[in-house]
Automatic annotation (TrEMBL):
<dbReference type="GO" id="GO:0001405">
    <property type="term" value="C:PAM complex, Tim23 associated import motor"/>
</dbReference>
<dbReference type="GO" id="GO:0030150">
    <property type="term" value="P:protein import into mitochondrial matrix"/>
</dbReference>
<dbReference type="InterPro" id="IPR005341">
    <property type="entry name" value="Tim16"/>
</dbReference>
<comment type="similarity">
    <text>Belongs to the TIM16/PAM16 family.</text>
</comment>
<keyword id="KW-0811">Translocation</keyword>
<keyword id="KW-0496">Mitochondrion</keyword>
<keyword id="KW-0813">Transport</keyword>
<protein>
    <submittedName>
        <fullName>Presequence translocase associated motor 16</fullName>
    </submittedName>
</protein>
<dbReference type="Pfam" id="PF03656">
    <property type="entry name" value="Pam16"/>
</dbReference>
<keyword id="KW-0653">Protein transport</keyword>
<keyword id="KW-0999">Mitochondrion inner membrane</keyword>
<dbReference type="InterPro" id="IPR036869">
    <property type="entry name" value="J_dom_sf"/>
</dbReference>
<keyword id="KW-0472">Membrane</keyword>
Length: 126
């Protein structure tokens, strides 16, 4: 009886071990695919997303921005910041999301301007 019980336990452990190993392999493959995707979309933008904890698309959705223009970002930021002010019954959480979204979009604008500087210098040299 104890022999059969031990065999069942060993077989169960093997099944769980194989399932865990397979899940680990799939997670590793997904992580590698995500890393390749990030490298093709731009190293700096991916770094900014990981630092701020917010993607560019998420920041654009929060501030309701379709194009990255400083004027539109500032206008929507000011409106949403005032609307979500705690003194007028707003949410501090939402207000902080608005601030983080603006920071992320400002970072993306600075990345784009840095990338355009070398291109414009190359155009003037030719």
């Amino acid at each position: 009886m104890a022999k059969y019980l031990a065999q069942i336990i060993v077989m169960g452990a093997q099944v769980v071990g194989r399932a865990f190993a397979r899940a680990l392999q799939q997670e590793y493959a997904a992580s590698q695919a995500a890393a390749r995707a990030r490298s093709t979309t731009g190293q700096q933008s991916a770094a900014a997303s990981s630092i701020s904890g917010m993607t560019l698309q998420e920041a654009q959705q929060i501030l309701n921005i379709s194009t990255l223009t400083p004027e539109e970002i500032q206008k929507n930021y000011e409106h949403l910041f005032k609307v979500n002010d705690k003194s007028v019954g707003g949410s501090f959480y939402l207000q902080s999301k608005v601030v983080r979204a603006k920071e992320r979009l400002d970072e993306e604008l600075s990345i784009q301007s840095e990338q355009q500087k070398p291109q414009s210098q190359q155009n003037t040299e030719t």
